[in-house]
Amino acid sequence: MRKHRRPDFIRPSIFCLGVVAVATTWIRPLHSGKRSVAQAFRGAVDYFEDPSKTDGGELISSYECDVRTADAEFALSKQQYAALTGRSQGRCDIIAYHARQSFMPGEITPEEANRIGYELAMRFTKGQYAFLVCTHIDRSHVHNHIIWNSTTLDCIGKYRNFIGSAFALRRCSDLICAENGLSVIENPGLSPGRNYAKHMNRPPSFQARLRAAIDDALAQGPPAFEDFLALMRAAGYEVSDSRKHITLRLSEQKKPTRLDTLRGDYTEDAIRQRIEGRGTSSPAARAPAAPPARKHTLLIDIEAKLREGKGPGFERWAKLQNLKSMARTLIYLQENGLDDYAVLRDRSAMASARFNELSDRLKELDAGLTANAALQKHIVTYSKTRKTYVEYRKAGYSKKFRAAHEADIILHQTAKKAFDELGYGKDKKLPTVASLRAEYAPMLDEKKKAYREYQQAKSEMRELLTAKSNIDRLLNITDRGLERNAGRLER
Question: Tell me, what's the pLDDT at 283?
């Protein structure tokens, strides 16, 4: 019997984020199980964003979602996905994916770890999924928890995990390390049960040592590339420039290292530019892009959280966060001319109506495209199998003939049944495939345009409903007219 191998997304893999950090990482799917999707998200996000682990929430960054309302936004996207696509997998549905990075104790700052985690998440998800990066400092080693929504930003697709995803994540990290001049473990594979701490005390790789030596040599300001090579020889490297590629080798190295394999600021061209003053002086100058500025967020229901078991520390932190959220909300209202509550209420209602209108239109377009594509398929199938079915009919519906051509006969009958259900017959002729394709193209273009408008309307509605919800909570106002859409943000 064939022995099945566990998929890579549950097998821990070890990779290096550079001289500054040796990290273990894994990817795991999150299911709702017996809980609701909102409860599952809330439980996971509450743990990841625990203020006692994230320096009061300062070590959290996010993409296309708000740190304070990420669970509600993730849950809302699931509802929109189900409404737009009509697909639902129940308890088996994967609602999000969770990845973790653990760094060497004392070798990286929490802020730098969070930036590295953010860049890794952005590269790996390609900016198509909302995510959170929460850096925990409650252990001896700093570690990141990265959670990304399984639903795409436009709510019409889902992330599909694949065999080798853990290795893809590692390779993505390796690329980031190379671009930032950081070392990479040459043989990162470990068995699932092996402790990554055994790798913590590994000496830097030869490439890491070579990059450090190059930085030291360039720090002395060599006037020419030949002088740089002389400094490398003085540092103990055997330099060979007789071939097409320049190589350097330490005495204990078995094989020399080619400069062009170092990439980033350490290729021959890059070093020449650094000597001439046209290149980056050090990899530290190219810090990862800072996370986007936080938008105003929903106020935290402190009383509800306390009833759920949160302690005094959370209460103090939540009060501070609510003050920040309210300040951002007031700035948003002033910048958008929404100082009058009546104007805010009307704009919120209009935004909700526009969002619902576009959502309904997208459903209509999806249904039309699906029906058009299905009809095209049936027409082509009917045409291809018609000759076989005619022969089957001439054979007196012979069982022997059917057994030999059963697949074609079933396809033909299925297509004919679909035509009958759609009302095509003597009085209504079938359209041609060319005419259907001509109808499909403009519908697809309209759908793409509608999706762009839908995303803008969704963002505008979220901002307005968030602001209105905060003002309502502050002033203890209840507006039944927008209760349904506002509830989406709470979920």
Answer: 43
